[in-house]
C-alpha cells in the first residue's frame, strides 16, 4: 500500500490524498461503503462503481463464521469472491464482539464468544485474526482490539487500552511472521475512551510498534459529540503525517465533515445503507423519511440536486409506494441514492480542500443540512 497527502487546506487540518493498493486506487477523504458479509445489501458492485464508491469494507467476524475464510481464499480473495474491482478493507470483528457482551469473554490471550448464528463457541486471538484476514485477502486489515463501552471508569479504560496495545504488538508480529505484506497493509487502532492521556499513550505506543495506517476506534458509542471531536483531534494531532488516518464507524454526514476538518482521511459506517432500507434518505436539504404520508403525492425526486439513477427516474411518491408495498426494489433504489449522496459529499469536500476553501464549503454544507429540521 502507498499513501500520499497531496494537499492540506491552509485554514484547517483537512487533507486530500491518494491511497494505492494492489486492487486499485482510492482518493481521500474516502467514505468506505460497508458490505459486511461480502456484499453491500441490495446493490450490486456495478452500481456501486457508478455511484462513485472506491472502497468496500467487509467484516472478518462475519466472513469467518460464514462462508469461512478458506472458502474466500479459494475464490481468490475477497475482491474476486464478491466481484469487486477496487480496494477492500476488513474489520477484525472487535466491535461486533464488543456488542455481544452476553456472548463473549475477554482474556489477555484473546476472546471467547458464541456465534450469533448457531451458538457455537469460538476463540480468537490477535494472531488468529491476522491469519484469517490473510486468507480473506483484503487490501487493508485491522488488528484485534477491545472497544471500551461508554461511560467507563478511567481504571477500566486504562486496562482496556493496555490490552489493545498488547494485542496490536502481537498482531504486528504475526503479520510479519506470516509474510502478509506487501500485498496487504495492517492498521493499528487507537483506543482510550474519552480520556486524553490514554489516547495519547495509545498513539505513542502504536507508532513505536509501527503500522501502515492508524484507525481511531471506540468513538460514536454513546459519548457526547464534543467528546468525540476532542478525542479525534487529540489523535490526529499526534498521528504521523504520512500515514492514512481512519475514523471507524462514524457516519452522520455532519460528523464526517467536522472530522475531515480535523485531519481524518477514511470513514465507514452502515448508516447510509441501513437507513436507506428503512426509508430514511439523505438529501442536500437534510434527511427525509420517504415512508411518511406527506410524500404520498410528492412527485418530485428524492433530491433535486442529485443525479443518481434513483433521482433521475423516480419520485418520492413512487419510493413510498414501493416501501409500503414491501417491494424489494425499494431497498435498491433507496440504498443507491444514499450511497451516491455520501460519495458526492466526499468528492465535493476533496475539491474544496484542493482549492483551499474547505471552511467555506463546510459551513455552507452544515447550514443547508439543518434547514429542514430533518437531521437525526
**Count of alpha and pi helical runs:** 15
Total beta strand runs: 16
Strand order of the largest sheet: 4-5-6-10-11-12-13-14
- Kindly report the average pLDDT value: 95
The CATH top-level class label of the largest domain: Alpha Beta
Q: Radius of gyration, Cα only, in angstroms?
A: 20 Å
CATH H-level name of the largest domain... which superfamily?
Answer: Queuine tRNA-ribosyltransferase-like
Shape: globular
Structural notes for this entry:
By secondary structure, the chain is of the alpha/beta class. The protein has helices at 45-50, 60-65, 69-74, 78-81, 94-98, 126-136, 154-178, 196-209, 225-238, 253-260, 271-277, 309-313, 316-324, 329-354, 358-369, and strands spanning 2-8, 15-21, 24-28, 30-34, 56-59, 88-91, 104-106, 111-114, 121-124, 140-142, 185-190, 213-216, 245-247, 266-269, 280-283, 286-289. The strands form 4 sheets. Strands 4-5-6-10-11-12-13-14 form an 8-stranded parallel β-barrel, surrounded by 6 helices. Helix 6 crosses helix 7, helix 7 (154-178) packs parallel to helix 8 (196-209) and helix 8 packs parallel to helix 9. The two termini are 36 Å apart.
